[in-house]
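Recall that a protein's primary structure is simply its ordered list of amino acids. Everything else, from secondary elements to tertiary packing, is in principle encoded there. The following example makes that idea concrete.
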Amino acid sequence: MYFLESLTWSKFLFGDQDMIFLLEVILRTIIMYIVILVGLRLTGKRGVRQLSIFELVVIIGLGSSAGDPMFYQEVGIISAIVVFMVVIGAYRLTTFLTGRSRKFEELIEGKTVCLIEKGKFCFQNFAKEDLAQDEFFSELRSKGVSQLGQVEFAYLEISGEVSVFYYTDEDVKYGLPLLPHEFCKQYKIIPVSDLYSCKFCGNTIKQEASQQPKCPICEKDTWIESSDRKRIN
């Protein structure tokens, strides 16, 4: 009974703040929504793998708004509800705009990027995505790729997944080997005349012994003996 008598509904619903503070809550929530969205966008596709950017924004925003009123007496329930409504409203507005505008969709979600074309890296795109070579090689090896000549196209999807399209065994080319024990054998001076692949872009050409060639595509000078190994399913 003492608890019920001492309970102030205004304090229970609004905490230590007044109605005017709700306007500040709305403004703060919109600002933080944009900050979270931009921050996740800057982390790149790999940073949000398995979940869409929108799902992460909603989870973070709603999680924060739900957590504070649970722990802090001065934070009112109404403020948390307003945050929920603003986050969900902003989410619905964002999905509406992405459905109506292709440019807005690409701005928020990014777009699918080609990383491998006909057995060679699209190294300009690769650099833009800030994707570590070792990480990408690991991804390809997990899909059964042991050398780049097995791959016709590979794309980095907006979800962060890597989609790979393979050559048939009859069409497999010589390419940059991805297996660690082969990839570690790198040369700046060509030891034996043969086909070699550029370590950085995968460009594969015939090289003569004792030369110190630079790649005509990326101008790097580190080479690895090419492989024509077929893919094992």
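The radius of gyration is 27 Å. The first helix runs from residue 2 to 6.
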